[in-house]
Amino acid sequence: MDAMTISLRRPDDWHLHLRDGEAMRSVLLHSARRFARAIVMPNLRPPVSTVAAALAYRRRIVAALPPGSNFKPLMTLYLTDNSSADEMARAAECGCIHAVKLYPAGATTNADSGVTDLRHCTAALEAMQSLGLPLLVHGEVTDPDIDVFDREAVFIERVLLPLLQRFPDLKVVLEHLTTRQGVEFVRSAGERVAGTITAHHLLLNRNALFAGGLRPHHYCLPVLKREIHREALLEAATSGSPKFFLGTDSAPHPRSAKESACGCAGLYTAHAAIELYAEAFEQAGALERLEGFASHFGPDFYGLQRNKERITLRRETWRVPESYPLGKESVVPMRAGEHIAWKLCD
Ligand code: NCD
Ligand code: ZN
């Protein structure tokens, strides 16, 4: 390995929105070129809340892969007020479903079928705890009285800490950490708790939402935070702690849905995901820690094998296209028309 290339065990993406149909077929290869596996989010319309729906969705993804691709979608179920213990048992048994996602009702894109009160989910959560099926958490309260920038910290106090007490063995991933409080929570919780971190939260703070004007393509949920929070995330990701691992939260929306009077939340980063993480780790002077974060700690947490293949990144600047196709529409990727310092070698 020289200074101009880095080689790492092929990484996995532990939080990805692939969408469905034509849009899915447009974006899938960006992830499949880089990652061996991805935890696929279930927030379709209608949500993927049954084993049958998850298996059918999985078949559609696999059918869209080009011949020779070994990319493996790891499916999740969408937790609702009606999720049953039996469905959780079937999920754990089928071998293709690796986690269950908690969206507080109304918290984000397609979260209207989300959980209104976790007390409705006791039976499902007890089953998950005994089956070892992790709960993936969108950690934001939805109370309109709580400032948008405080919603993660308040969720931890109000919802997550009591949940961990009620279910002392439940495996929990606090997804897309965005705050110092989130990092501190994951660090101080036991081994069964981990957190994913996106590339965009490592590279951007909330100024990026307003740089020279309103920037809808930098709007996501949880929303970008202050610089002190970005620094805490970068410190956590590059610390070598196995509690923090890669989850892009790449979330494509059509350009028209973003450039709107009420724009959708989500950044598209799948086109350059591992390259963007490499930039962030390089900024922190911690490139040698990228492999643990991207390729080791995720499978270790989920009880899966680490990948055997490797990928290589070259230090070469390239210009990101202004947009990529998204079904009949287009998606504006992170860094559209700008440069990225690392390139994936085939
Ligand atoms: C995600 C989406 O568009 O599905 N959006 C986002 O801003 N991250 C949903 C989510 O993960 O919150
Ligand atoms: Zn997401």
Describe the structure.
This protein is of the alpha/beta class and about 350 residues long. It has one domain (about 5-345): TIM Barrel. It is about 35% helix and about 20% strand. It contains eleven helices and 13 strands. The strands form three sheets. It has an eight-stranded parallel β-sheet. It has a three-stranded antiparallel β-sheet with strand order 1-10-13, with helices on one face. Strand 2 (about 15), helix 1 and strand 3 form a beta-alpha-beta unit. Helix 3 packs parallel to helix 4. The radius of gyration is 19 Å and the shape is globular. About 50% of the residues are buried.
Main β-sheet description? 8 strands, parallel
Q: Which structural class fits the helix and strand makeup?
A: alpha/beta
Question: At the fourth CATH level, what is the homologous superfamily?
Answer: Metal-dependent hydrolases
Mean pLDDT: 97
Which ligands are bound?
Answer: N-carbamoyl-L-aspartate, zinc ion
What is the terminal-to-terminal distance?
Answer: 16 Å
Summary keywords:
binds zinc ion, TIM Barrel, eight-stranded parallel sheet, 346 residues, alpha/beta
Summarize the structure.
With 346 residues, this protein is an alpha/beta fold.
Give the helices and strands, then pairings.
Blueprint: E1 5-9, E2 13-16, H1 21-34, E3 37-40, H2 51-64, E4 72-78, H3 85-94, E5 97-102, H4 122-131, E6 135-137, H5 151-166, E7 172-174, H6 180-188, E8 193-197, H7 199-203, H8 227-237, E9 244-246, H9 255-258, H10 273-283, H11 290-302, E10 310-319, E11 324-326, E12 329-331, E13 339-345
Parallel strand pairs: 2-3, 3-4, 4-5, 5-6, 6-7, 7-8, 8-9
Antiparallel strand pairs: 1-10, 10-13, 11-12
Helix pairs in contact: 3-4
The structure holds N-carbamoyl-L-aspartate and zinc ion.
